[in-house]
Structures are given as C-alpha cells and as structure tokens.
C-alpha cells in the first residue's frame, strides 16, 4: 500500500469523501489517505493528524515525498485537537480504530465539529458504539458499507448532521440500518460468526457462579443473539 495505491479498505473510505471538501484525517498513520485524495484530484487541502511521534514523522516524510507540503498539513496532536476552526474542515475521516475509541475522539473534540458536514468512520470492531453516539449527537447515517480484507471484516459508517432527532431500533443500532437493507454475503458471514461466538460465551457462563453481573451479561448476549437470528432466519427463509 502507498499513496498511489491504497488498501481496499482505505479505497472505500476515500470513495465517500466529497469532491473539493477540506479533510481532516485523524490517526493518519503514513498520511496515505490524504495524499491519495489530493493526488487523484478529489480534494485540494487536508490535515493529517497523528498522536504518536513515529507515525507523525512517517506522515511528514510521506507528504514531503509526494511534494504535497503546500496542501497537506501534518500535525502532532491528540484526536480532533489537530483541527482549528479556521481550517475550514468539512469532512473528517477516522479509520482503523475500535468504535469506542472513535466515539471518544468525537466526544472529546465535539466543539471542533461545528462546521464539519460529513464524518467517514471505519471502525475495526464495535460499530454499534458509533451508531449510539450518532443518535445522542444528532448525526444521521447516510451510507454504510461492509467489506472483507485479509480475512477481516470491516464496516464503514458515513454520518451527516441531522436537523431533527435521530432514532433507530435495537436491531438497526446493532447491525446497521443501511447494511440491513443490503445484507450481502459478508454481512451474513459477520453476523453468523458473531452469533456463534456469543452462544459459546453464554454456554460458558452457565457453569460459573450466577452473580448479578453474569446474569445481566448473559441476558444482554441472549438479546443480541435473538436480534441477529431474527434477521438471518428472515433472509434465509
């Protein structure tokens, strides 16, 4: 992977970046995504934010190598602290982290999202956390995608601000309102795998001391299994 040829996962993230938007890529690593977006003419300006010095320096070198220092500003900062309101950021991308960490970044830097029109988020795990955050903060899901790369399954969630409050069912929050409409083979594979794993956990809980915490956790997992199996059975019937 390099700035000219992204991984399949990052290529799909790039697909949702609006043309001529001003992008902040948080946790940019080698800055491959913003470099690719500028090199392909999708955008003219970006910020690459990194909190770890090693990846920050790698991003700086990559931007210099591509001769894009006038268009991509690499900043060493935690989360959305990389953004200033006068940067005019309209799109934020955060890819390759867990859903709860992405939510923490968004929550801690909420005041930096005032003029942001689109969030393109690619959680590695626990996508539901992002949908929960979106509901609480009045962002609507405009697109979702599920994909597989190197035997790992990833989701992409694209959010835009909603003028009205947002609500989804428990099933939609867990599995994705847009993904539920499509239900491709990767979607089926993910949820069959998840359901099977949850069943094993529930079975193992049966042989442990039934504390309140164990009982509550078991009930939570059983509910999730029911939500998933309802969808899978309906699709396969």
Verbal overview:
The protein is an alpha/beta fold. It has 2 domains: 8-166, Vaccinia Virus protein VP39 (Rossmann fold, 3-Layer(aba) Sandwich), CATH 3.40.50; 185-236. 45% of the residues lie in helices and 21% in strands. It is elongated.
Give a short summary of the structure.
With 237 residues, the protein is α/β, with parallel strands linked by helices.
What is the makeup of the main sheet?
7 strands, mixed
CATH superfamily grouping of the largest domain? Vaccinia Virus protein VP39
User: How many beta-strand runs?
Assistant: 7
Helix and strand composition category: alpha/beta
Strand content: 15-25%
Q: For the largest beta sheet, what order do the strands appear in spatially?
A: 3-2-1-4-5-7-6
As a whole number of angstroms, the C-alpha radius of gyration is 19 Å
Written as H for each helix and E for each strand, in order along the chain, the element string is HEHEHEEHEHEEHHHH
Number of domains: 2
Helix content: 40-55%
> How far do the termini sit from each other?
41 Å
Note the overall shape. Answer: elongated
Report the mean per-residue pLDDT as an integer: 94
Please give the CATH architecture of the largest domain: 3-Layer(aba) Sandwich
Low-confidence stretches: none
Give the class-level CATH name of the largest domain. Answer: Alpha Beta
CATH topology of the largest domain: Rossmann fold
| Count of discrete alpha- or pi-helical segments spanning 4 or more residues | 9
Organism: Planococcus versutus
InterPro entries: SAM-dependent_MTases_sf, TrmK
Keywords: Methyltransferase, Transferase
GO molecular function: tRNA (adenine(22)-N1)-methyltransferase activity
